[in-house]
């Protein structure tokens, strides 16, 4: 062994050794890294949109037929037979204005919840921010929501509900619905990887959640002393606010604030838990 090799070995021995380990416990999610992969988010969302209507005879028309059918059913059962109030609006408008945000939520939350398991082939082979997978599931339902909004304005015009300045606030309530849906979906996606029982629990949860939200009935039917608890459901305030923005009447401002805060809390908790367990996804998915 020559002197050069011996000196090199001595230098290596004096250098500090860096051990790279995964951080344990709760941590803030690195949204800067996720933003750097934003093109991948677009690709995943576009893939879901293409698969949604691939080899279908009616294509995007399903985005109109599904809410239209549900509006007719709700109008007959709850509007005429049950005679539920509709906050002064024609019941078809009232029902459809509740169905559109709820349909978006009901499509995104379960799909996002199962997204990591469905995409296990890429989760285990390629590194990228895993949060992009559940987030991308909102792309296709957002397109459906935009298409079905045309139906909503057509029904509003048919029933004599014209354009109002308050309707400019509707996108803010849609944003609240998106935050709530993704928060629940991200949390469910992390839980489903570890506990596959959630794939069976989520459909029952969504069914119960619909009846706990003002889709077919107004918030005014909920006793006043219990409304603060009712509005902890983020969909309650967002649906109520979206509906009142369209028909031009003021929503329950207190309820909108509570539901908006609840949506943000759920989203933050979902992302925080996702960040905590993300490093184990490739091993157990």
Please tell me about this protein's structure.
The chain has 285 residues and is mainly alpha-helical. The chain has one domain. Helix content is 69%, strand content 0%. The chain has 14 helices and no strands. Helix 5 packs parallel to helix 9 and helix 9 packs parallel to helix 13. The longest helix has 28 residues. The radius of gyration is 24 Å and the shape is globular.
**Overall number of strands:** 0
What is the typical, i.e. mean, pLDDT? 85
Helical content (DSSP H or I, runs of 4+): 55-70%
SSE order, one letter for each helix or strand:
HHHHHHHHHHHHHH
Taken together, the total number of domains comes to 1
**C-alpha Rg (nearest Å):** 24 Å
- What is the end-to-end distance? 50 Å
Largest sheet: none
What is the approximate shape?
globular
Structural class, by secondary structure, is: mainly alpha
Uncertain stretches = 18-22
Strand share of the residues? under 5%
Report the total helices: 14
Secondary structure layout:
Layout: H1 3-14, H2 31-36, H3 38-52, H4 62-81, H5 91-118, H6 120-123, H7 132-136, H8 139-158, H9 170-194, H10 198-211, H11 227-230, H12 234-247, H13 253-277, H14 281-284
In brief, what are we looking at here?
The chain has helices spanning 3-14, 31-36, 38-52, 62-81, 91-118, 120-123, 132-136, 139-158, 170-194, 198-211, 227-230, 234-247, 253-277, 281-284.
């Amino acid at each position: 062994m020559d002197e050069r090799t011996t000196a090199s070995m001595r230098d290596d021995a004096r250098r500090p050794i860096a051990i790279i380990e995964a951080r344990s416990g709760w941590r803030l999610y690195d949204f800067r890294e996720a933003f750097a992969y934003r093109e991948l988010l677009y690709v995943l969302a576009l893939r879901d949109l293409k698969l949604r209507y691939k080899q279908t005879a009616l294509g995007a028309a399903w985005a109109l037929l599904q809410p239209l059918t549900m509006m007719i059913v709700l109008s007959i059962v709850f509007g005429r037979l049950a005679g539920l109030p509709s906050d002064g609006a024609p019941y078809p408008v009232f029902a459809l204005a509740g169905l559109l945000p709820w349909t978006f939520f009901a499509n995104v939350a379960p799909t996002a919840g199962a997204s990591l398991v469905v995409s296990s082939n890429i989760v285990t082979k390629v590194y990228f921010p895993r949060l992009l997978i559940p987030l991308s599931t909102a792309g296709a339902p957002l397109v459906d929501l935009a298409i079905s909004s045309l139906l909503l304005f057509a029904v509003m015009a048919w029933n004599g509900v014209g354009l109002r300045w308050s309707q400019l606030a509707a996108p803010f309530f849609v944003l609240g619905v998106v935050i709530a849906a993704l928060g629940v979906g991200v949390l469910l996606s992390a839980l489903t990887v570890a506990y596959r029982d959630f794939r069976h629990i989520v459909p029952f949860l969504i069914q119960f959640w619909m009846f706990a939200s003002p889709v077919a009935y107004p918030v005014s039917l909920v006793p006043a002393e219990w409304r603060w608890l009712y509005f902890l459901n983020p969909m309650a305030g967002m649906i109520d606010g979206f509906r009142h923005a369209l028909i031009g009447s003021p929503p329950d401002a207190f309820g909108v604030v509570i539901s908006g805060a609840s949506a943000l809390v759920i989203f933050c908790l979902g992302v925080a838990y996702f960040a905590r367990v993300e490093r184990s996804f490739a091993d157990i998915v």
